[in-house]
Give the backbone structure.
Amino acid sequence: MRSGCPGVNAINWRLDRWNTRFKSISAAIFLLFSLRGATARQSPSQPGIQVPPSVYTDRGACPFEGCVYRQWTARQDIPLYDRPNGKRIGVLKKGEKVEGLTGMVRTVPNRADVVYPHDKYRTGDVFYVLTYVGEGFAKVWFKGKIAEEDIADMPFEGFNPGGARPLKCITPSPDCWWNLASAKRQSTWWVKVKRSSGEVGWAISNGNFDNQDALG
């Protein structure tokens, strides 16, 4: 006659199955939250993040008004690398023509403390100047979001159409509303170029090529 209660072996087998399922579900939940956390930390537009990365990489950027990727001419001998900050693979000779394919600008964010209300900013706000885009505008990081901002009033790269501007505003006013960490942008513009031979590599563009400006 069969007993109405399952045997010990059957009970242990069921417990083992439930234990295995529980471990699998727990691992899946842990992995899900780990991935979500990694995405949040890496997202430059995540509202909860107040401070940008120590070096901001703007992929595909062409950092001035009229900038264009097309055929360029080397102004001088320029080292060529397999990737940004990578292995040196050759040298572009002065006068050599190459095709500018794309690029990236790596910038050390420049902190600006707001000391007088200005547009959307309030006294005590902090934003960070990132990639310069031309005509007094730059990408800025504010409260975890990136947007273009008019910074022409600030002593940034010497762009001061209204005259000399102080690095820090001793007497805050509508015309002087910032304390800027540095008047000099620390950035490197890496460009991917193609030689007439078909060889492709990366070079530092900062002042090294002619014919980058579509406006002149």
Residues 1-5, 22-46 have pLDDT under 50 and may be disordered. Residues 153 and 160 are 6 Å apart (CA to CA).
